[in-house]
């Protein structure tokens, strides 16, 4: 089943102090500006690392986060966290949250985003982040967070969010590149069908070409199923008369074939954790290999 054109209500940015945070903020700002959507930045104080403290231990921050709310100098996204001497850990974490959100807002506005709002939440990281996402919002987060020590792995929070997110999620690499093309990998699964309208809508609204790819079964000279998958994408794209579409049947193992076809400036769209041929490969360590090896932003839908 091919789903209808999605209605996007806002861009939701997950803000932390990881090396991936700046690129995530730049992608979120670009989407906010080009799609004329508000940008909501949220930082979660992970109480799972602090013995399960409640939100009341931290207070709350919301709204516009103007300069008057920033008592300390802004820190670089990705900078090291060192609590000031004489402050409690709760005060230090809330101060740092304000600093990170202030920096994210400054960066987003510098990239042209006009309506940027911010909030601090406390709770278990993935839970609190998912609870912050409203209907129709596109969630943007870096591939790894602050707690990930192995550069070869998908961050634990990112993986939990991807498995439970009710809508679309854009997972961003460490380096920002201006998007030049949307690549949609389609295997006929329900998650892929759910992300298809997002891929088509983003390509059309960002005025980018759309490349639809399917992977031929190994050892098959012809694969009618792969062709049928691409025709489904053609049908969805044909409803956008201004959209430039190319179709490609790839050969070989699924993940390497997709990674090899990617170019700098691509945005890859896939279905996550479904039942089709591609999604059979988008599980466990191979999911991490795809997100790591692609080095492009990846749009997924659960």
From TrEMBL:
Database matches in InterPro entries: Universal_stress_UspA, UspA
Matching CDD domains: USP-like
Signal peptide positions (record): none
Domain UspA: 13-173, 180-300
Family: Belongs to the universal stress protein A family.
Protein name: UspA domain protein
UniProt source species: Truepera radiovictrix (strain DSM 17093 / CIP 108686 / LMG 22925 / RQ-24)
